[in-house]
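FAQ: What does the model actually see?

It sees only this:
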Amino acid sequence: MLLDSKGTNKKAEELILLLIPLLLGIAAYVCLFAIGSYYSTYPDSVYIYLINGTHIANGDFEIGHYDNPGTTVHLLAGIIIYVAHAILGTQTVFQDVLANPELYIKICSGVLIVTGVLVIYFSSRSIYKTFTNLYLALAFQLIPLCAYFCTHYFLLTRIVPETLILFVVIYYAAFVLKICNKLNNNEKLSVGNILTFSAITGFLVVTKITCLPFFILPLFLISSIKNKLIFIAETLLFILLLTFPIWHKLSDAVTWFTNLTTHTGNYGQGEEKIINTSLFYDNLKKLLQRDLFYYTSLLVLLTILIWGFAKKQWSNYYFKLVFAGVLIMLSQVIFAAKHFGYHYLIASQSLTIPLLIASILLIKKEYENKYIPIALLALVLIFQYEKFDEQFSIFSEPNAIYQTSLEVEKYKDTPKIITTGYQGSCFVASALNFGAFYHGNYFFTNYYYLRTLYPTSYFYSIGENKIRHWEIEISNKELIKNNPNILVYFREMDDVVLLKKITEGCDSLIKKITRVKENKNTRETFYLIETIYRANTAVYKTTKTVLCDFEHINKTANTFFSSDSAFQFKGLDKITNVLYTSGNTSIKTTPENSIACETSIPVKKGDRIKISVNSFSQDMPGLLLLQEVDKRKFNFRSEYVTTILENGWRTISLEAIIPENYTSSKIEFNLYYYGTTECYFDDLKIEIQSQ
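And it is asked to produce this:
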């Protein structure tokens, strides 16, 4: 009989249930070591969760990434990083993680692998104990093989939403099958059961918005309207609580998800309508060609539903589960066809085997056959063998991009322009720059550490046609003329066209450009720009030093004096004695009163101006701003943190050379704060230097 295990050794069968989870765990560790590094494979979105998880580990709960929303993953990453840093860390959390990103990612991966093995084992053990059938439990253990994400993006190892969705759905499926068995035996749902439905549904929706259809599953299984309302209220509460790290970005998140819904393209782009019919059908064709098991199972489940309606099985809770599951599968297919991506099906792919098990349990009274579970197990293995074999064939040779990263170590001291973003590359700095783009509040000081750790890394933004040294924009001319050699790195892009844009207007500064390395398999290309480099031999002498500690005031003029009384600075109304680095006062700026310390500095063309000020804020460090009098076409600005001081203070600095075509005898200066809380400034220093 289907549910009979008399005459069998239950302890032996429970030991057999360890086999597949352990094999999957070993396979995951093989993948983990075979990839070499995440920055050379899939930094998107592992490095995003690394950076925001580090925010949480550091106690900064206002993160910057809300696209999935994914806050559950950020929180998990934060917990793992916090514990790992407590054991291994030698510096601050951010310093340690930015210096050793791959170590912390692989610690997260190790935790995920162990978690995955335990979830698969204990969930399948629950299936075995509930239905006393080894083959159903073994088939249940093969859920990861049905998930496209697992068989194509490094089995169970990545700290991303899809991994958490897989684990939670596996646990949820075992829980729901057990609940259906309970309800079919005329038992009632407990308060704890409804709370579990709410917690898991809220967790899935917050982890990835594509799991929203899971909202309907408990509504099929909860009978009374009162309990349905309790479930809805509890789920909304869980969603609210789990999204607390992005409450400060709620309006941005609402706009993001609204655009996803109301635009035809990926990531809220394209036409302003819900579905582009031709694009939708093209995407649907691609989806249908990719996963034969998923769509074959969907047809089988639809057939079971038709049979169930014909046999009037709608009061059977396995039938209700299959009905809800099919609706979830169809909903996710529709979403993936609108906003194309195979990985958007991960949740419903993970439901496929549990729904087939529910179908077997549904038809067992009329079609009792002990071979049906065995057939299910065999079919899953046959259907998934090709995908599983494809995944491990990837690792039959070393990761070629990681090998490239080892080969280009000889250029580590050469300034390099990196053009990659979310793509894997041979530079860890590229992945960190991508992840840091999604940083939360209070991150800005950490760019100082990144510039210290990776001083030769520059990044070219294709969309903006700009080069940055981490957060600091730099012109191509300035970069090229100040370095004898520059390495330019491309991957999977039109390197010839982009190289022309990067070097545009610099012909007189370049001696030659040589393609020094090309890997056609990985589509990586390296160019070396040899410049007509002339070391800067200009000698500057300080002609004037201006110091202002915001202690000397002129109440009549509402200004501060410099220490020598030669300069006056506006903003006496912003004086405060709450925080300071010297004396007893500083100035305080807010979003409403963001400009301070305005003055005019006498200059002549060719002068070098060096300015520094101490800054304290919970988010942005503030700006030093120099701009031309009247015309305001010429300006220098800097939020460049150069020194980390005690008690949260930092020094920001600006250095500018007045160009030869500058016509005015003065230049205007002010401090500017563009954050959202408040910023204190103290101990301003201005040096005017001439050749």
